[in-house]
Amino acid sequence: MLTKIFKIFFFIFLLIYQKPLYSKKNDINDFNLDDLSNYFSAQISYDNQKNLEALKFFNLSKSLLDKHDPYLKQYIYSLILDEKIGLAIKELKSNRNNKNADFFEGYLLLTIDSIIKEDFKKTRKYLNEISRFKNQSNLNLFIFESLENFVYVFENKKIPLKTTKFSGLSLINKAFHSCYLQKKDSEKYFLNLFKTEDIDYSRYIFFYVSDLIKKNKIIEAKKFVNNINILSSNLLVIQTKNWIDEERFKRFKETFSCEKDSHLLSEFFFLIANLYSTQENFEMSNFYLNLSRFLNKKFIFNLTLLSENFLKNKNYVKTKKILKYFNREDEIYYWYRVKTNTKIISKQKGNEDSFDYINSELKKFKNPSVKILFDIGNIAKNFKKYKIAVLYYDDLLSKINSKSGSYAEILFRRGSSYERLKEYEKSDEDLLNSLKINPDDAYVLNYLAYSWLERNYKIDDAIKMLEKAHLLKKNDPFILDSVGWAYFLIGEPKKAEFFLKKALKIMPNDPVVNDHYGDVLWKLNRKIQAKYYWKSVLNLEKTEDDMKKKINIKLLKGLNKI
Fold first, then answer.
1. φ, ψ for residue 313 (rounded to 5)?
2. 66: buried, middle or exposed (CB in 10 Å: 19+, 13-18, 0-12)?
3. For residue 60, what pLDDT is reported?
4. Which of 103, 124, 260, 430 is most buried by its number of CB atoms within 10 A?
5. Cβ 276 vs Cβ 284: under 8 Å
6. What is the tally of structural domains in the chain?
7. The CATH number of the domain where 64 resides is what?
């Protein structure tokens, strides 16, 4: 409480004594001290992501609307984050002649409102205002250019000639433009997305299949989803396959329509939210997620990103609240809810309680899908319950085509579990059989080779496998680490340093890489540097107790005493 009071006092002090930054024409005597106190309480709550508390204080300090420039913008942000989009738009309209309302997101909200009301004259006016802010960031520019094109499509029912400067992202917009206009070639645009190798556009399989269902191309939709690998696909794609397999075609129509302006904009703003989330700007990500939800409340599946954002910020209460939207009607998303609750329990109570919870939930599934069994096996493996993991993988292998990529993936998982149990013959058998199905799987090659190196077994073969893995995945840090470690073990520390340094640049906080790099430096007689990296391992969050013990011995006695 005292800290909050000091913060409020400090902000008032700044307002009185520093040169005005936001409101040059306002005198401090224009401000009521109660309003100031409420405003800065709102500011503190807002900064601490306590949005309901922030809204309370913002509402108590509304007299500052005309007097303090940032007030309206922050108030609007709080309203959006609290899903009060209608109220936010109303506030912007009532303050439209105020210079406080002159900001990018404000005009964006007014643009959305005018599109919903099909008042394209106002839409163009607001877009013109947005254009003044477009060069503030690449995302602003992309939003402006995309909205301009969407509005052209909505108003003129034509594909726009103008394209955005962002070629990859514009491919998505083109697919939706064509789908909206029900063009014959709309399917082609989606299929072109899936052929792109450098970016994963698999999410848009849902919208492609949804378009096929809309056109009553059921057989074509079924053929397409049959090729989906449910073990490696994202949630929306797996749920898509689930609906098709169960012939629940109405679910597509209930959740999304390419022909609705609001649904297209909803998906567009979800894309923006994703981009902000990858930059770890969770506040702006949630801002655009709530806009997305406002435009299509039935598409609840985008709420997974909102739950992930809250989870990353350790806001477990809000995470759990979001998870309640996913029910048993959509099995894959309900299972996501169970898995996310498992993560929270693990953080709050530990792995044992977490594992007990997920096992009790698993029993409630009458006939758990292959995806669910795969996940529970992986969770057991991550919790170091390798014997239990093996049992789940055994069950899975009996249900999967023995020549498929999925079969190879499960063999890899079971083989690596056997390796942790030190059952090396079984491990080698599984990993080699996995490579028979998929000989170019860089991660299986890497795992098996590293296992052999650690056991001082078939060193030459292990190095050949690592060289192949490196050719397949040149910048993968785990493979770079393995190659470096291989060279260290065969007495070539200079070569080892080259690869380990590259791995360290990509994964500077990985305990194993730092430990290996320290060993190499010791061999190169750079012992002070070696100790520096060993010491750093002791402070890393992921360092296991066994490794810490070995590091402490190396720090006391040197490498050769291990």
1. -95, 10
2. middle
3. 44
4. 430
5. yes
6. 2
7. 1.25.40.10
Distance separating alpha carbons of residues 430 and 165, to the nearest angstrom: 48
Distances in Å between the alpha carbon of 24 and those of 19, 67, 69? 8, 10, 10
DSSP 239-255: HHHHHHHTT-THHHHHH
Q: Which of 114, 129, 156 is the last residue of a domain?
A: 156
Average pLDDT, the chain: 84
What is the average pLDDT across 112-117?
Answer: 95
Cβ–Cβ under 8 Å, residues 499 and 474: no
Provide the whole-model pTM.
0.77
* 204, two tokens: 């848009």
Q: Tokens in use for 442? A: 């860089």
Distance, CA of 217 to CA of 326 (rounded, Å): 28
* 28 falls within a domain: yes
306-329: pLDDT as tens digits: 999 999 999 999 999 999 999 988
Task: Give yes or no for a contact between 382 and 420, defined as CB atoms under 8 angstroms apart.
Answer: no
Closest-CA residue to 319 (of 295, 297, 301, 303): 303
**Contact (Cβ atoms closer than 8 angstroms) between residue 506 and residue 542:** no
Cβ atoms of 411 and 431 within 8 Å: the answer is yes
**Residue owning tokens 């169960």:** 246
Confidence at residue 89, expressed as pLDDT on a 0 to 100 scale: 93
Residue for token digits 């006092």? 9
Evaluate if residue 561 carries a pLDDT over 70.
no
Q: Residue 45 falls within a domain, yes or no?
A: yes
Give yes or no for residue 49 having a pLDDT over 60: no
Mean pLDDT of 195-215: 87
Is 80 exceeded by the pLDDT of residue 4? Answer: no
Query: In which domain, by residue range, is 519 found?
Result: 508-562
What percent helix, strand, coil does the chain show, rounded to 5?
75, 0, 25
515-543 CB burial, b ≥16 within 10 A, e <16: bbbbbbbbbeebeeebbebbebbeebeeb
What is the structure's pLDDT at 15?
A: 39
From 129, 156, 183, the end of a domain falls on 156
The verdict on residue 184 lying in a domain is no
- Distance (Å) of CA 164 to CA 138, 146, 149, 177, 287: 11, 7, 8, 13, 23
Retrieve residue 360's tokens: 């009790």
pLDDT of residue 45: 42
Instruction: State how far the Cα of 553 lies from the Cα of 540, in Å rounded to an integer.
Output: 17
> Does residue 21 belong to any structural domain of this protein?
yes
Q: What is the rounded radius of gyration, in angstroms, for the C-alpha atoms of the chain?
A: 28
Tell me the H-state helices in 350-476: 351-362, 370-382, 386-397, 405-420, 424-437, 442-454, 459-472
Instruction: Kindly tell me if the per-residue pLDDT of 145 is higher than 80.
Output: yes
